[in-house]
Amino acid sequence: MKYLMFVCSDTEPDTDRSDWPDVEAWVAENDTRGRRLAGDILADTSAATTVRVRNGELLVSDGPFTETKEVIVGFDLLECADLDEAIEVARTHPMAREGRIELRPFLNPDA
Amino acid sequence: MPDRRAAATATEAVATAAAGSYARIVATLIRVTGDWTLAEDCAQEALTLAWQRWPAEGVPANPGGWLMTVARNRALDVLRRAAVEQRKLRELAVLALTGAGDDGPPTEGDIVDDRLRLVFTCCHPALALEARVALTLRTVCGVPTADIARALLVSESTMTRRLTRAKTRIATAGIPYRVPTGPALTERLPGVLAVLYLLFTRGYDADGEPAFADEAIRLARLLDRLLPGRSEIAGLLALFLLQHSRRDARRDADGRLLTLDRQDRSRWDRAAVAEGLAALARATGDGPYALQARIAACHATAVSVAATDWVAVARGFDRLAEVQPSPVVALNRAVAHGYAYGPAVGLHLLGVARGGGALDGYPLAVAVEADLVARQGDRRRAAALFRQAAEAHTGAERRALLDRADDLAPPPPPDAVPGEEWSSALG
């Protein structure tokens, strides 16, 4: 199954700072095992642009589509056997402790 | 009336076979077809057919095998008739189903894995806790949706939606139909046991008794057998059995709740106590369920409140307060110490437990204080406290608390209490 892994910030990061995982090692490990197909870090939401079209009119505004304290700071595209494997991949990402991670399956599992 | 007797035997046989086989039929059909609703429907139809046929035709030699065969054939029928565009999927499932038939009866190992798979999938942490409880009751235990809804105090349509959502989520989120292995099993097991504990404690039937205690005990026995050497499973099974052994003594003839000191201990289920103690002997760890079971065992093996090893009970709550601290544990610790070392010690610990308002709005704390004050000899103040505790309750619990108050001291003038209690106290 394919999962889009949203990497998000969080106002309450892990207070335990021991054995902090290294993101480069995480990328290398999951790329090698074929579980990470793509991924990157995103620019700050101050660089975001929201686009809408209503009644044929283009509406462009600055900022993200919702103003929240927790924002998406990156993403990874995963290919995993099932949710348990995707959770195992997500839990070892440093942002699982610094922030939070949302796993969203593709609607069409064969995509 | 031999016919009626045969029918009664057949009815009993269906109930027994259902209790023993439902989970394995559903679990196997889910593994093979991947379709939760189809699996449940076919298992249910097999039971319905048994209700119809067994009274007239007699109970088959292997009731569980009969049900499995009927359910499997029914699933085959449905899949064969499925829409053409799903041909590929359908052929795979049909192949698997007929294969399961050709290879003779599945080995014990296959069945075991299927039921465990089902339990771990229903209790997956990616499902909401309420959904886990409902799904386990419906799919593993085969409890009708209407009964689950009634016991958990939601409408049947709400429960149906909750179950459908959970099953849909298993498919769309990619929740696997698998028993975790290695460290993952150790990590996931407490979540499964927590669902079993909720099953035992959350639902109540019309009499106010636990609605799903039997189901919880059956599942704990199953896990205990299939995952041997896991101390917390044995601890949970022991806790269930020891608590459940008191079910017939918990209420008087009028349905009033009776505290431990007022229960007729000859009505405790000795077989359940024995099985509970045997399970407890295997629970070596200091997990929260084993600790609670050890406390329950102190009560179960005592002939009276006075003969109870309260020092052991107090020690159990000391340890539980470290492992799983909560206001309720602190309250129970005060009760135990009150019996072990005297009411003054109990009142002191009750004061500590109440620190920071932890037990505010918790009427049981007032009843505990009342009991301790009564044992210190201040009957009038104890009676007033029992009446105060009763105000927060209705029904059987309220009456039980008012009875305690009336036993200690005559109630205050009639204008201060409802007439009924006043006249009953005089009579």
TrEMBL record, chain A:
InterPro entries: Dimeric_a/b-barrel, YCII. Pfam families: YCII (PF03795). PANTHER family: BLL7171 PROTEIN (PTHR35174:SF3), BLL7171 PROTEIN-RELATED (PTHR35174). It comes from the Bacteria. This is YCII-related domain-containing protein. Belongs to the YciI family. Residues 14-105 form the YCII-related domain.
From TrEMBL, chain B:
The keyword Transcription applies. GO terms for biological process: DNA-templated transcription initiation. Residues 120-169 form the RNA polymerase sigma factor 70 region 4 type domain. Residues 188-283 form the DUF6596 domain. Gene3D superfamilies: 1.10.1740.10, Winged helix-like DNA-binding domain superfamily/Winged helix DNA-binding domain. GO terms for molecular function: DNA binding; sigma factor activity. Residues 24-82 form the RNA polymerase sigma-70 region domain. Pfam families: DUF6596, Sigma70_r2, Sigma70_r4_2. Residues 400-427 are annotated as: Disordered. The keyword Transcription regulation applies. Belongs to the sigma-70 factor family. ECF subfamily. This is Sigma-70 family RNA polymerase sigma factor.
